[in-house]
Amino acid sequence: KAGVTQTPRYLIKTRGQQVTLSCSPISGHRSVSWYQQTPGQGLQFLFEYFSETQRNKGNFPGRFSGRQFSNSRSEMNVSTLELGDSALYLCASSLADKGRETQYFGPGTRLLVL
Amino acid sequence: AQSVSQHNHHVILSEAASLELGCNYSYGGTVNLFWYVQYPGQHLQLLLKYFSGDPLVKGIKGFEAEFIKSKFSFNLRKPSVQWSDTAEYFCAVNAGNNRKLIWGLGTSLAVNP
Q: Does A108 contact B92 at a Cβ distance shorter than 8 Å?
């Protein structure tokens, strides 16, 4: 089975721009979660989608948004980019919407904001 | 608010040494506990997990962890490390049926051959 894939892998943007990141979960997985990883803050939960519905949201500003499509693929969008948005954005998928489900991670999209 | 703390930020060991990485969490209810590992240049992958039952869980590559409820701890252990264990190790917790993972800041382990 193919793992979680994320595109693009690397991205350079300038302040004020917006960016869209894509995540394709493992086939059959219906839950997708997004995390931001930075050296100072570690991994922080952004949001989680299950069956096209946002189930959980972390403590990020409204500039961060996401969505999930009927095929479980998910996108996250960051508008009005700030320097502090530079990070590795990780997507994780799991089979169902249970807390005990193992989350499988993709390679991440490394975003650099200049 | 839930939090996870990993006490060791950087650990350097020689091959064959024993390893114990500490993880403590703050949450009073039912928790699910995870250890993930990130090898250089690779994805985060699951080492082991605890949901219920035997508090001593075994994972891949000879790792194990013990859940001590009274101490809110889930420490990771390996009796004899190898150079290939050089990686970043993350402890993560979610509460009950919530899939939102709360993460420790990670421990960077370097094993000298």
A: no
Q: Which residues pair with A15 in a beta bridge?
A: none
Instruction: With CA atoms as reference, report the closest residue to B2 among B110, B83, B94, B106.
Output: B94
Q: What is the pLDDT of residues A36-94, one digit of tens each?
A: 999 888 999 999 999 999 998 999 999 999 999 999 999 999 999 999 999 999 999 99
Q: Which of B42, B44, B47, B52 to mutate to test the interface with A (most CBs of A within 10 A)?
A: B44
A97, pLDDT greater than 70: no
3-state secondary structure of A84: helix
Backbone angles phi, psi at A27, to 5 degrees: -55, 130
Searching chain B, which residue's CA lies closest to the CA of residue A4?
A: B43
Hunting for tokens 């499509």 — which residue is that?
A69
Say what the alpha-carbon torsion angle A54, A104, A97, B47 is, to the nearest 10 degrees.
Answer: -130
Angstrom distance (rounded) from CA B66 to CA B7: 16
Rg (Cα) of chain B, in Å, rounded? 13
In contact, A84 and A98? CB cutoff 8 Å: no
Cβ atoms A58, A45 nearer than 8 A: yes
Reported as a pLDDT band with limits 50, 70 and 90, residue A96 is confident
